[in-house]
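Weekly structure sync, notes
Attendees: PL (lead), two postdocs, one rotation student
Agenda item 3: pending single-chain targets
PL asked that the sequence for the first pending target be pasted directly into the notes so everyone works from the same version. It is reproduced below exactly as submitted, 272 residues in total.
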Amino acid sequence: MAEHIIYLLGPFQVPGLGQERHVRVYAPNEAAGGAPVLFMFDGQNIFHDAPSFSGGWYVHHAVKQLAEQGLPAPVIVGIDHGGSSRLDELSPFTSGDSAGRADDLLAWVKAELAPRIAQEFKVRTDPAGTAVGGSSMGGLAALYAHFRHPDLFGAALCMSPSFWFAEGKIFDYVSAQPKPWTSRIYIDAGAREDGGSVVADAERMVRHLRERGWDERSLCWIADKDGNHSEHDWRKRAPSALQFLFTGTPGPRPEAPESSPTPAGEGAPPPA
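Predicted structure, written out during the meeting:
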């Protein structure tokens, strides 16, 4: 039997977006009362190397480590991007490069995908037990989703977020929204990303959130002095980020293994 089984759902047609896509789900051992759940963008990248453009995150390994430590181990729901439409569907804002269709993607997650995950996997459905995450444009989309749908997403994982996109409209958007009644936000960036500008933008957002009352248990900020804008670096920081999302305490950042074989359970159908 495979050590890790990634269930493959779909393909799905998302209203308003052209390309069909699959959803990949990793479910650790069932937890009493249901496991927390983390919806992640760019699902091709978060598990194995094969479907990713530049290597996978192996998030399922990090989840397994949490379970072995007796910590909350989330079900991971990886939403594949739509290829050429990725920039449109992960941007909340129109710009010269994007039609800004993130609301279409999030509306589908809320109306169709989240209820299906709750039906087929034993997960929590309360905002405190439901998070959204991603890197780069996915990190931008994750923070937006938390403030746009706080009734669904009570936590956000934002790795190397593209807060600069669309002339930094995310700053005005967040400042205009009320603080979600339950909120936990993880933000990180690497010092080697775009000459330090990604760190600077992230620090600006962190300062704003701190001023509005986010504390050490509700906001984690990691500046990686050696970090680049790469799957390898997001993979390295993922275990600490996952631990923080559902405990309020970040874990250590173990070095990620160089590679791992695709398990026999890749692409399995969902449980009955």
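Discussion points:
- The first strand starts at residue 6 and ends at 12.
- Residues 128 and 174 are 19 Å apart (CA to CA).
Action: rotation student to compare against the earlier draft before next sync.
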